[in-house]
Amino acid sequence: MTEAAGPERLISETEVARAVNDLADRLAPRLSPDAVVVCLLTGGLWFAADLTRALAVRGRPLAFDALWLTAYGDKTRHSGITTVLAGLRRPVLGRQVLIVDDVLESGLSLEAARRLVQAAGASEVLTAVFALKPAPTPGRRPPDDFAWTAPDRFLVGYGMDAAGAHRTLPWIGALPQA
Ligand SMILES: O=P(O)(O)OC[C@H]1O[C@H](OP(=O)(O)OP(=O)(O)O)[C@H](O)[C@@H]1O
Ligand SMILES: Nc1nc2[nH]cnc2c(=O)[nH]1
User: Fold this and answer.
1) Is Glycosyltransferase among the key words of this record (predicted)?
2) Number of H helices and number of E strands within the chain?
3) Which residues, including other chains, have CB under 8 Å from residue 96's CB and lie 6 or more apart?
4) 119 alpha carbon to ligand 2 midpoint, in Å?
5) Is the ipTM of this complex over 0.90?
6) I need a labelling partner for 159 at 20 to 30 A (CA). Which of 7, 76, 95, 170 fits?
7) d(CA 14, CA 111)
8) Alpha-carbon span 150 to 174, nearest angstrom
9) How confident is the model over 66-107, as pLDDT tens digits?
10) What is the CATH number of the domain that holds 162?
11) Pocket flag, ligand 2, residue 110 (CB < 6 Å)
12) Which residues line ligand 1 (CB under 6 A)?
């Protein structure tokens, strides 16, 4: 019996850390000390933890909140419906918000989050993702910044899962191509 191939490593833990720090260098001057970071759960958690600590050592120890969204389930394509499993806990009225997520593909998840944050009265919404994938359809809104240009592969690790697997890897890989 042959063993199933694991993910192909695309970017190491060290390269991930460097990319997060470079992103924090660019973002810190754009952020108000009163800004709120909104992490998109579940996948955004690992990136948000690293990015917020990198921002804190750059003079931006920001408030933190989360939105729990799901759209892919156990599939490798967006379902077309973004379900809100849990909303914001604290008011963002009149405050700058930085939404952070692990990966942007169709952009539908980030757009759903943007609408929720705008509806909650944020004065400005910035977005940052770790991995920016090629747009599957034209017209996707780009994030305000991102850490890494990803290939058109299904990614795992650093928050990204394949039906629940591989999320906690410290590096990013891609599932073997069929
Ligand atoms: O740009 P999009 O095509 O919307 O894809 C990006 C979203 O896909 C994943 O979420 P998923 O629905 O898999 O939930 P998860 O955070 O629990 O992994 C990921 O965490 C992003 O939020
Ligand atoms: N795990 C994972 N989730 C995604 N959501 C959108 N693209 C991806 C991807 O490449 N991997």
Assistant:
1) yes
2) 3, 9
3) 31, 32, 34, 35, 36, 122, 123, 124, 125, 126
4) 26
5) yes
6) 95
7) 30
8) 10
9) 999 999 988 888 888 999 999 999 999 999 999 999 999 999
10) 3.40.50.2020
11) no
12) 40, 42-43, 70-72, 78, 101-109, 161
Torsion 67-151-146-108 (CA) sign: negative
Domain extent for 27: 9-72+80-171
Question: Nearest residue CA, atom 13 of ligand 1?
Answer: 72
Domain-located, residue 178:
no
Tokens linked to 129: 């993702």
What is the model's pTM? 0.96
Is 103 near ligand 2, meaning CB less than 6 Å away?
A: yes
Alpha carbon of 154 to ligand 2 centroid (Å)? 6
Amino acid at site 172: I
